[in-house]
Amino acid sequence: MKRYVYINEDESSHDLYRDNRISNRKYTTLNFLPKNLLEQFSRFMNQYFLLIACLQLWPLITPVNPASTWGPLIFIFAVSATKEAWDDYNRYLSDKKANEKRVWIVWNGIKKQIKAQDIHVGNIVWLRENDEVPCDLVLLGTSDPQGLCYVETSALDGETDLKTRVVPSACMGIDSELLHKIKGVIECPNPDKDIRRFDANLRLFPPFIDNDVCPLTIKNTILQTCYLRNTEWACGVAVYTGNETKLGMSRGIPEPKLTAMDAMIDKLTGAIFIFQIVVVMVLGVAGNVWKDTESRKIWYVEYPNEGPWYELLIIPLRFELLCSIMIPISIKVSLDLVKSLYAKFIDWDQKMIDDETGTASHAANTAISEDLGQVEYILTDKTGTLTENKMIFRRCCINGVFYGNDSGDAFKDVELLNAIEAGSTDVIRFLTIMAICNTVIPVQSKSGAISYKAQSQDEDALVHAAAKLHMVFVNRNSNILEIKFNSSSIQYELLETLEFTSDRKRMSVVVKDCRSGKIFLLSKGADEAILPYAFAGQQTRAFVEAVDQYAQMGLRTLCLAWRELMPDEYREWSLSFKEANSSLEDREWKLAEVCQRIERDLEVLGVTAIEDRLQDGVPETIETLRKAGINFWMLTGDKQNTAIQIALLCNFISPEPKGQLLLINGKTKDEVYRSLERVLLTMRITTSEPKDVAFVVDGWALEIALTHYRKAVTELAILSRTAICCRVTPSQKAQLVQLLKSCDYRTLAIGDGGNDVRMIQQADIGVGISGREGLQAARAADYSIGKFRFLKRLILVHGRYSYNRTAFLSQYSFYKSLVICFIQIFFSFISGVSGTSLFNSVSLMAYNVFYTSIPVLVSVLDKDLSEETVMQHPQILFYCQAGRLLNPSTFAGWFGRSLFHAVVVFIISIHAYAYEKSEMEEVSLVALSGCIWLQAFVMTLETNSFTILQHLAIWGNLAAFYIINWIFSAIPSSAMYTIMFRLCRDPSYWITIFLIIAAGMGPILALKYFRFTYRPSKINTLQQAERLGGPILSLGSIEPQPRSIERDVAPLSITQPKMRNPVYEPLLSDSPNSTRRSFGPGTPFDFFQPQSRLSASYSRNCKDN
């Protein structure tokens, strides 16, 4: 689909396309309430609570006042709605500020100022220096005589370097006064979100140019939110406005990510719901039986002889309402609140601020912090992620001669300096390509110093290197490129630029020597994109050796080549190039095909070698996280040898003989098949050996393997802890993430550039590095950090703490609700199984919303171990990875504790205060007091590190319980009038509370002491060492646990046993599947072995691909 934009037609396009009003609001004043309620009630749990609340409006069946459910429900909905409204109001203020900004447009040939929201498609917008671009514009003119302007795109793509934009050739040279009257039409695609592409055509109407078609690209546009820099003025025609701009189209709400813990909580909630239905059915039947039998014998029970048709449903429905609190109504809001706090802890972490740039870490996604503690695979980019992305020119090979090998620095190589001084033809051509085969913009300061604005760190390194070697790129004046060599000026006319693409892996320029008139093609690119296109007869073996040698050193390589073009050849090719460049359909593919025709028969001049150093702390970070059982995959576009060397340097893989690299290569299906077969066979054989095995695959072989042997690649992923994938495309990176996710692994992807965005968004957790390639990755990610080394703290500290805290909070929320529910059930056995509530409505509402919620919320401050201990012993992350703190087993423990405490509270309270000794409200308050006291001690027992805030929450909340009930007891109209005063003066009340605490907490304390003393987990061991203040020498062994593969890998016919490679897991002594190992004298602890994988009892089957 296309749109036609008529330039400077004041009314014609107004009705066809929308105006420039920006709206990012989710709601309006009228639809906020219904839309928000609809969203909230789209969740099953909210529908369930609404049903319960509605049933409580039926007086015949409700055992308590409806306010006990409606109150918390309305409160929770109000909190969620208020948060949504506040967020939406902030979006409204931001929109209003942008919409009401004043801008200049041309109207009827006259410049006038209007609000940005009133711009329409086809209007000519006038910008001054430092103005923000209000919509997507096609440039028509600038203050620069050559039609250039500079824009800052950091708000759009995060890249801070200025970019050059150029006026279309059809508009070049038009006087600024005539721009007010310009007329024409732009044929362009419908709005899309691709900020890298704009394939359109421009046709100006007479008297400017008589219907000549001028192709437009993204370089002829300036997009919304960019800023005009270093340019006095620029004007352009609006082509996309409002929410139809490229930025507006890219906005959107990302798909919510479901954490492993959220999935487990949903399953446990479902189990409790089924248990609740069973209890309701049993008690409902028992109640109806008792009503029809025993109740007839009791004179004061007045059931009617005949009831309505629904009589049998009344008691079951009463029990359904009574048991509805089994599922805590506040758990969703509580989890959302604490997860927001986890995200803030990451934002506030002073230890994760990059001192070099001042960049702080940021959590964009507040819902998945606990997943950080369960990461099993990290997929990482190389350049800019593991390395600094600071490119330094180190060596080169020109026409088979190596420079810089002796000193490690080509700038100090006397032989190279002599060749330059002597004017060696090959060397001069080599330096010329380094200087002008790029998109770099030289900027000359007032003092005469030249700096360079480059979009690529490689280009920046090459241009600076050429300048140091006396080939200085001094000026880019429209199509004239000026360089100075040894004080002599050389000028080239830039005829065409063949831009770099990830498919072609090279870029070229066609230039014309202004002195001789000769036309040259200058090219640079990857070795596989240059060397195969050398002219017939040229020997390229020396260049291949140079590439391999430099790659072995971990250096980045580029091959440089050139050839002279005949004028006729260029003219013929130029027509094809312009035709492809003006195509609106498949322009990129057609351009690649045309470029292929001319980028051939090249004379290869040499190879450059650029160093990209590792970031500080990368080897230590990877080593620590590997000890934590996390597997690493490197996904890079670099050469195989370069990637392997970087992997060795950063502890990604171990050198021989401890480590072993298995190569997967091939250009055909058969070759890849044989390679895969060999690697899989080797890996299966080595599963019994403690060897660090990794596989290496290039993009071509990977594409064939993913297409034809996907199940084999899946088995390979399970068998290997480490992988190095070279020459991979962004889409292949995303495919590999999806492959690991399909095996039910928790994945984290980390990168720093736009080519990593798809991988980051595909992973369970996406981490972006705010690097030199801009902020695209950081903006697309769930978390952004300044350097790779902060990943260690993000996972081990924030991820682990978040997992532990959420595990406790979720299970405690169920525990406190089950305690009160079980007491209600027990009370039904002495109240004729009638569904009568022991507690009044006010007490139930206060219990759920206030008495038990505040203490648990401050559990977000709890730390079972200090940060230093966690960082020193990363192996304990296995507990989180294996889900040891939240699973059916641990939940059963909390379920049993709630049942036990309910029995204790009920029996002691009833025996102390029932049987005509007290009124029902008194018994109710005693039982409620027992619950509150028990939960205060449970919170105290489960808290590992106390702060003043935690003490205030636990004991202050207990004091608040008595204060609130004293207030209610002082109100004559209250059902609790004088009760709390009488109870507090009665010694038997305090004796009862003491008995409840002793009976309820005694066995819990004894069990905890037994486990801590005789069956301590590794965490208990570390806690004990922290309290004693002694060093921790080691921490027990990790048992090998194979992970089975359930499906055969077709079509590979390999019959070896399918087992996981040697995996070592910590002996989790509190697991029923673990084998206990005693601590011998003199060796209190054993060392963890730094290998990975989860317990076999928690291994998960690989899904079908």
Automatic annotation (TrEMBL):
Q: Where are the stretches annotated Disordered?
A: 1063-1086
Q: How does it sit in the membrane?
A: Multi-pass membrane protein
The record's annotation in InterPro entries points to: ATPase_P-typ_cyto_dom_N, ATPase_P-typ_P_site, ATPase_P-typ_TM_dom_sf, ATPase_P-typ_transduc_dom_A_sf, ATPase_P-type_domA, HAD-like_sf, HAD_sf, P-type_ATPase_IV
The UniProt GO MF terms for this protein read: ATP binding; ATP hydrolysis activity; ATPase-coupled intramembrane lipid transporter activity; magnesium ion binding
The UniProt entry lists the main location of this chain as membrane
Question: Any idea which UniProt keywords this protein has?
Answer: ATP-binding, Magnesium, Membrane, Metal-binding, Nucleotide-binding, Translocase, Transmembrane, Transmembrane helix
Record-stated family: Belongs to the cation transport ATPase (P-type) (TC 3.A.3) family. Type IV subfamily.
Q: Which NCBIfam families match?
A: ATPase-Plipid (TIGR01652), ATPase_P-type (TIGR01494)
- The protein's name is Phospholipid-transporting ATPase
Give the source species.
Answer: Punica granatum (Pomegranate)
List the taxonomic lineage.
Eukaryota, Viridiplantae, Streptophyta, Embryophyta, Tracheophyta
